[in-house]
C-alpha cells in the first residue's frame, strides 16, 4: 500500500512524501485545513459532524444523480488543483478522461467513493509518478460537498481492486468522466443567507484569535468565498508584518460559525495556497 499526506483543503494539500518530516507536516495540515485524508478514505470529522443529519445509505444512482455527482467531481478536482498548484496530487487529472466505478460502504453510508480506472500522474510530492486513485465525496443535507472528503492511491489497478474487495466496498455504477483545463473557481453572487454567515464568521474571530494565542493586533482577514452547498470555507488572518495563519470554518450550522485551528503559514506549499485563496476571498480588517 502506498501512503500519503497533504490540504485541502488547504480542503486543501494532500501528498505522498519522501521524508518523515514532510510526511508529519503534510498529515497535520491535511486534517486541520483541507479535511482531506489519504487513509482511511473517509472524512472522519465530516462523518462525526453530520452523521445525525445525513446517515442514509446510497440507493442505486440514477442518471440525474450521476450528472450532479460528475459536476461536483469536476469542480472539486479543479478547485483543489487551482488552490494547490503543483502540490496537488490531482494535477494529472487536468484535460484527461477516465472510466469510473462508483462504490459505497456501510461503514461510511454518506460517502461515495469514485475509482478512476485510468492512471494519473501525481504532483510535486508524488514526483510525477503515475497512480490509480479512489476519491471520496461526501453527501450531506445540502447535497454533495464541493470538497474532496478523502482518497487513497495505489501504483497498480490490482491493488486498488483488492482493497475495494477486502475493505467492504459495494459496487454501485459505472460511467465515464472528462476533466477540463484548469479555471479559477467560480462562485455565485452572495445572497442574504451567505451574507449572514459571513457576519457569523466575523463574530467568531475574537474567540478564535484568542484561543490560538495570537497577540492583540490589527489583522487583515480574508474569508474565502463559498457556494450554497459548501460545508466549509477557509479563513486567512494576516498581521502587519505579513505573517499569515490559515483556518477552516465550519459552515454546517447557522448562527454558530466555528473556526478551527489556525495554522501558521510557513512552507512553500502553504504560501502558494494562501495566495490563491486570497484571490477568491472577501477581505477586511479586525482590530
* Residue-averaged pLDDT: 82
The helix tally amounts to 6
Number of domains: 2
Main sheet characteristics: 7 strands, antiparallel
Shape: globular
Gap from first CA to last CA = 49 Å
Report the structural category: alpha+beta
Strand content: 25-35%
The amount of helix comes to 25-40%
H/E element order? HHHEEEEEEHEHEEEEEHE
- Unreliable stretches, pLDDT < 50, 5 or more residues? 1-37, 39-55
What is the alpha-carbon Rg in Å?
Answer: 18 Å
Number of strands: 13
SSE arrangement:
Blueprint: H1 20-32, H2 44-50, H3 63-84, E1 97-105, E2 108-116, E3 120-121, E4 130-140, E5 143-144, E6 150-154, H4 157-166, E7 170-178, H5 192-211, E8 219-224, E9 232-238, E10 244-250, E11 258-259, E12 263-264, H6 268-279, E13 281-286
Antiparallel strand pairs: 1-2, 1-7, 2-4, 3-4, 4-5, 4-6, 8-9, 8-13, 9-10, 10-11, 10-12
Describe the overall structure.
It is built from six helices and 13 strands. By secondary structure, the chain is of the alpha+beta class. It has helices at residues 20-32, 44-50, 63-84, 157-166, 192-211, 268-279, and strands at residues 97-105, 108-116, 120-121, 130-140, 143-144, 150-154, 170-178, 219-224, 232-238, 244-250, 258-259, 263-264, 281-286. It folds into two domains: 20-178, no CATH class; 192-286, no CATH class.
Amino acid at each position: 500500500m502506498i501512503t500519503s499526506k497533504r490540504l485541502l483543503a488547504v480542503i486543501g494539500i494532500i501528498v505522498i512524501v519522501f521524508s518523515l518530516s514532510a510526511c508529519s507536516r503534510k498529515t497535520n495540515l491535511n486534517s486541520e485545513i483541507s479535511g482531506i485524508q489519504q487513509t482511511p478514505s473517509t472524512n472522519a470529522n465530516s462523518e462525526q459532524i453530520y452523521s445525525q443529519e445525513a446517515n442514509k445509505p446510497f440507493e442505486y444512482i440514477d442518471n440525474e444523480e450521476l450528472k450532479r455527482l460528475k459536476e461536483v467531481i469536476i469542480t472539486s478536482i479543479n478547485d483543489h488543483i487551482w488552490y494547490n498548484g503543483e502540490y496537488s496530487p490531482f494535477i494529472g487529472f487536468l484535460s484527461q478522461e477516465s472510466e469510473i466505478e462508483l462504490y459505497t460502504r456501510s461503514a461510511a453510508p454518506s460517502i461515495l467513493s469514485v475509482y478512476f480506472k485510468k492512471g494519473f500522474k501525481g504532483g510535486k510530492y508524488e514526483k510525477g509518478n503515475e497512480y490509480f486513485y479512489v476519491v471520496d465525496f461526501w453527501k450531506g443535507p445540502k447535497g454533495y460537498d464541493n470538497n474532496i472528503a478523502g482518497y487513497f492511491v495505489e501504483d497498480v489497478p490490482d491493488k486498488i481492486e483488492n482493497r475495494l474487495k477486502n475493505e467492504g466496498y459495494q459496487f454501485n455504477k459505472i460511467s465515464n468522466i472528462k476533466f477540463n483545463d484548469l479555471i479559477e473557481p467560480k462562485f455565485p453572487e452572495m445572497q442574504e443567507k451567505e451574507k449572514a454567515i459571513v457576519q457569523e464568521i466575523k463574530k467568531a474571530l475574537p474567540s478564535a484569535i484568542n484561543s490560538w494565542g495570537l497577540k492583540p493586533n490589527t489583522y487583515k482577514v480574508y474569508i474565502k468565498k463559498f457556494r450554497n452547498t459548501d460545508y466549509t470555507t477557509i479563513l486567512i488572518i494576516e498581521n502587519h508584518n505579513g505573517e499569515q495563519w490559515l483556518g477552516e470554518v465550519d459552515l454546517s450550522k447557522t448562527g454558530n460559525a466555528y473556526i478551527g485551528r489556525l495554522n501558521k503559514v510557513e512552507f512553500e506549499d502553504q504560501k502558494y495556497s494562501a495566495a490563491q485563496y486570497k484571490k477568491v476571498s472577501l477581505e477586511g480588517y479586525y482590530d
